[in-house]
Amino acid sequence: MSLYRLARPLLFSLDEETSHHLALRAAGVSALFAPRVPRVPVRAMGLEFPNPVGLAAGLDKNAEHIDALGALGFGFLEVGTVTPRPQPGNPRPRLFRLPARQAIINRFGFNNVGLAAFIDNVRRARWNGVLGINIGKNADTPAERAIDDYELGFKQVYPHASYITLNISSPNTKGLRNLQQGDELERLLARIARLREPLAERYGRRVPLVVKVAPDLDDAQIMVIADAVRRHGIDGVIATNTTLSREGVEGLRHANEAGGLSGAPLRDHATQVLRAFASALRGEVTLIGAGGIMCGRDAAEKFAAGASLVQLYSGLIYRGPALVSEFASAFRAK
After folding, report:
1. Which residue, 69, 129, 115, is CA-closest to 312?
2. Which of 270, 300, 283, 288 is nearest to 130 (CA)?
3. Vertex 31: Cα angle to 29 and 32 (nearest 5)
4. What is the mean pLDDT of residues 58-65?
5. SS (H, E, C) the chain
6. The pTM is what?
7. Is residue 171 a contact partner of residue 242, using CB atoms and an 8 Å limit?
8. 91: exposed, middle or buried (C-beta count within 10 Å: 0-12, 13-18, 19+)?
9. Phi–psi pair at 173, nearest 5 degrees
10. Rounded to an integer, what is the distance from CA 194 to the centroid of its chain?
């Protein structure tokens, strides 16, 4: 029995957010007992990944645990979401487990320490793997100024990131998902794409740009996003963030809590969206599969649907660090 399986009953007996922070602090110890992760190199977005299994943003919001999480064998880490100014997020409780369906609902609301402290944390980390930084807007920034927040975040994190993700799909910041719509998305991507060239010249490297999308998109919305991504030279799409749907958890305790649902019930829907982006983009853009990946078979399904890389969050909560090796092995066997 793995160390994590022994520790999980204790963690799950605690308040969800308390156990979340406790598990992060113990990640370095967990790494000592985790299975060795096979080396399965992947080249994507102009970057070399030692394996295609990454940590999704949201677990290490403040980039405080990069070294410990890196020791678990991930091929890449994504930290954040970070906003220009510190903000507390939504009131607690704001994280809920639904263990009967291996699901999680969160309504954190981009709680984070802000760009200055976040970047200090990144600088202190010794891990030298592929690091994605996920950026967003402050909750009190007016909708008409939202792009200013992304511009500031992009400029500030650029020299510290292996790639940068624009989070325009969290359901927990009012109006954020409007940035996935045609005109709003066009303005955002045009502004950030223009910024990238002078920054690349200044720092001597072109940092890949990724967009993280919601699972709650119809075919027409997917085509609009795919066209904009292609037109503005975006390097990657993460499909997907959490869902507002409660399909698969109806009647369970906490199922009616506000927030985004992740975990096993999201898997099929997220894979459908991933497959739709793969069809629309036809290999022109790197796709990163996320949402409901709870075992090696789920990871293999994402790779088959068009993902070059995958990310986990809820699977790590329910299955522990051994999942990293299981996912990497699924890619090697594909």
Report:
1. 69
2. 288
3. 70
4. 96
5. CCHHHHHHHHHHHCCHHHHHHHHHHCHHHHHHHCCCCCCCCEEECCEEECCCEEECCCCCCCCCCHHHHHCCCCCEEEEEEECCCCECCCCCCCEEEEHHHCEEEECCCCCECCHHHHHHHHHHCCCCCEEEEEECCCCCCCHHHHHHHHHHHHHHHHHHCCEEEEECCCCCCCCHHHHHCHHHHHHHHHHHHHHHHHHHHHHCCCCCEEEEECCCCCHHHHHHHHHHHHHCCCCEEEECCCECCCCCCCCCCCCCCCCEEEEHHHHHHHHHHHHHHHHHHCCCCEEEEECCCCCHHHHHHHHHHCCCEEEECHHHHHHCCHHHHHHHHHHHCC
6. 0.95
7. yes
8. exposed
9. -120, 120
10. 24
Tokens of 270: 């997220």
Q: Which residues are catalytic?
A: 170
**Is residue 285 within 8 Å of residue 235, measured between CB atoms?**
yes
- Which has the closest alpha carbon to 276: 311, 229, 226? 226
What is the predicted pLDDT for the residue at 1?
45
Mean pLDDT value of segment 143-153: 96
Q: Convert the pLDDT of each residue in 257-285 to its tens digit.
A: 999 999 999 999 999 999 999 999 999 99
The residues pairing with 261 across neighbouring beta strands, listed in sequence order, are: 105, 243
* pLDDT score of 15 more than 90: no
3-332 classified as CATH 3.20.20.70: yes
Return d(Cα 77, Cα 4) in angstroms, integer: 20
Q: Name the β-bridge partners of 130.
A: 76
